[in-house]
Design brief:
- This protein has 512 residues and is an alpha/beta fold.
- 35% of the residues lie in helices and 26% in strands.
- Among the domains are: 143 residues, Rossmann fold, CATH 3.40.50.300; 122 residues, P-loop containing nucleotide triphosphate hydrolases (Rossmann fold).
- The strands form six sheets. A six-stranded mixed β-sheet has the order 6-9-10-3-11-12, sandwiched between helices. Strands 18-21-22-15-23-24 form a six-stranded mixed β-sheet, sandwiched between helices. A four-stranded antiparallel β-sheet has the order 2-1-4-5, with helices on one face.
- The chain starts with a helix and ends with a helix.
Length: 512
Amino acid sequence: MDQVQQDGKRSGAADSVVPLLELKGLDKRFGATHALKSVDLIFEAGEIHAIVGENGAGKSTLIKLLTGVHVRSGGEVYWEGKPVALATPHEAIGYGINAVHQEVVLCPHLTVAANLFLGDEKVRLGLLQHREMVREAQKILDEIGFKIAAGAILSSLTIGQQQLVATARATTRGTRFLIFDEPTAYLTRQETAQLFALIGRLKAKGVTIVYISHRLEEVFQLTDRVSILRDGQWVSTQRTAETNEEKLITGMIARSIEQIHYKETIPFGAEILRTERLSGKGFEDVSVRVRAGEVIGLYGLVGAGRSEFVQSVFGRFPKTGGQIFWKGQPVEIRREKDAISIGIALVPESRRDQGLCLNLGVGLNINLPIYKRLTKGFVIDPRAEAAAADRQIRDVQIKTASRDAPASSLSGGNQQKIVVGKWLNHGAQLFIFDEPTVGVDVGTKVEIYKLFATLLKNGAGIILISSYLPEVYDLADTLHVFRRGRLIASHDSAHTKEKALHEAILTEALGV
């Protein structure tokens, strides 16, 4: 082991101080797959420790081992210097180990209060004391700074608000060791600020935070130390202040990336789509156009109208006014089938809920839009089906054991590639990407951006929705800023740094 890396594991911690949690040779196998390979890590009490790595690096497996979801194949785990099994979630919770997962795993049909007290409900004389639970839950939410109504049904909240509820629940369970897995993926800037403030308070109370994120700027903003995993192996641990983004990326993917937001200069072609004063639920009077070879970016907070606008263009929600033009001709898009038939594809924000059939195989998901094309009479041609799936698995570089592997078995980044590959197979001309890089690593982001370039060079146009300002700022040829359902600024790439647009972006980002 490299001496610098070995020293970095404690990174200045006194040798006499017993770490809160220590992993020695932690190992996990799933059949022939070696997911974690003899990982050594030290977590000190009261530190914020980042874990970074590409999708498939072993981060999710590590979380499941620490929270008792999986049982390790080898190695030792020490809690305050004493060996522990962590063989069940109940045991992990007993030590104060909790996790807030990227995908919310709560009960959508229950209230926020009921979810906070799930498994520890307040009962008197056999009757559930829901009002008392709502009062106490609201007090908890107010104290930690989350602006959420405790009596609201969870499913009525945004994905980001549901994530905050999951965080609040984790902090009320005697937590001493809290794992965050991509916690800001669906949060607005205000919600992110609330979360970061809570993390600061937890750290001050001595809670150890493990922070897993592909947003490296958050790693540098929040954390004390950062560890890199690659291909299931520990690479290094360093003080965050003593490293930089380039070094982390090189350690994560074993190669350097000169430009994270990969973009090629592609000449624009003919107009593909134009909207004139389009209005619908959540937006009004939106006029934009997309040309072949062009990326138009839609930026704004969650609920600003961006997603509602594209959902209407895709036929998911009816328009209430205005007109859509396709290649210069007015069209009526009343349902999704209409949009798909003329060549519009939507890669939705929530790939698990809206973009994939998780229980179906990778190949089935990829071929879903084109089965009519693969059918002879009433029978699917198995050779054509296999060839179409394999082509996209190869071209999009989906890491899967086979085309028959269920989509649920793949990492988040590879699941996103399935959704992209599905519409590439369909041959659409306008691609709507709603938060396409949420929860994917820097290497996968570059691959997705290169896919954008391929689409554009083949004559397609792209609408890119992103809450991540650097992404939409760098990639869009034309940038539109939404606020409260309306466009408040629109400029092409040659003028995106003009003062007016910059101020509009900052106004929307701050929500003022």
